[in-house]
Each structure stands twice: as C-alpha cells, then as structure tokens.
Amino acid sequence: YPPLLEAEGLEAALSSARRTIAIPVDITAERIGRYDRFVEESVYFCVLGVIAEAVDAGATRVTITLHGGTDAVRFCVDADSAVGRLVAVEDRIDALDGLLTVTSEPAGITIRGELPARARTLESA
User: Fold this and answer.
1) d(CA 14, CA 51)
2) pLDDT at residue 118 tops 90
3) Cβ partners under 8 Å of residue 70, min gap 6
4) What is the maximum alpha-carbon separation in the chain?
5) What's the DSSP call for residue 93?
6) Which of 2, 87, 111, 123 has its CA at 20 to 30 Å from residue 45's CA atom?
7) Which residues make Cβ contacts (< 8 Å) with residue 35, sequence separation at least 6?
8) Is the pTM value of this prediction over 0.90?
C-alpha cells in the first residue's frame, strides 16, 4: 500500500506514480476527497493496471480523469491503444460492487470505473 496514497489520497498518489510511467500521463481530478481505504486502494491499482496494459499494447499517451462525490468515486482512463483482458481490474471492481465499462474505438480505448464511496466490509458481505 503506497504511503502517499494513505497520507494524501488518490490524486497525489497517482500524480507521483505517473513519474514512473514511460509515456505522458495527464491527470484531471474533480472533487476528489478521501474515501475508505479499500476504495482508494482499488481505484489506484485499477488505474495503474489499465495504464500498464495500455503501455504494453503500445500506447503513447494516457489521460486519467478522477471524479468524486458523496456516493461514488469514478475514474476514466483513455489510451491511444488497445488493452488485453483486465482480469485484476475487473476483480477489484467486482469485489466492491462497482461498475466497469470498456469502450474500444479505432483511436484507442476508454475504461470507466465507478466504486461506492464507502466500501462494504467483508463481514457485512
């Protein structure tokens, strides 16, 4: 678990992580506050998982959009390449009863995810 994610949240952690990515990554964040640890962790690792797949598929640019609210946290990753199967991303989203959509176009791919702002604990599952 990245210390910066725990200390400062999603926007700061993803901004820091983009320095380790070999292609340009633009990040836009709107109303991103602090969320349950499982939610922040899932969004963080989902976004990085999508980026890793896109880079492996030959992407030359990635755009991340984060949008927060009281009911849900949403992310969108746009890349100018295709991606393979996103099993780990799908599993993380499913574990928290979230939604994931993938839209492929000739110019690239858009992956949108939405997670409830509060994680359902395993005990209440």
Assistant:
1) 11
2) no
3) 117
4) 44
5) H
6) 123
7) 9, 10, 43, 68, 73, 117, 118
8) yes
Residue 73 contacts residue 41 (beta carbons within 8 Å): no
pLDDT at 124 over 50: no
Q: Output the six-digit token pair for 80.
A: 């100018």
Q: How far apart are CA 56 and CA 15, in angstroms?
A: 20
Antiparallel, parallel or unpaired: β 25-30 and 62-68: parallel
List residues bridging with 63 in a β-sheet.
26, 78
For residue 22, is pLDDT > 90?
yes
Angle value at C-alpha 113, between 68 and 76, nearest 5 degrees: 75
Place of tokens 């400062």: 8
User: Which amino acid does the sequence have at 34?
Assistant: R
37 in helix, strand or coil?
helix
**Structural element, H or E, at residue 77:** strand 72-79
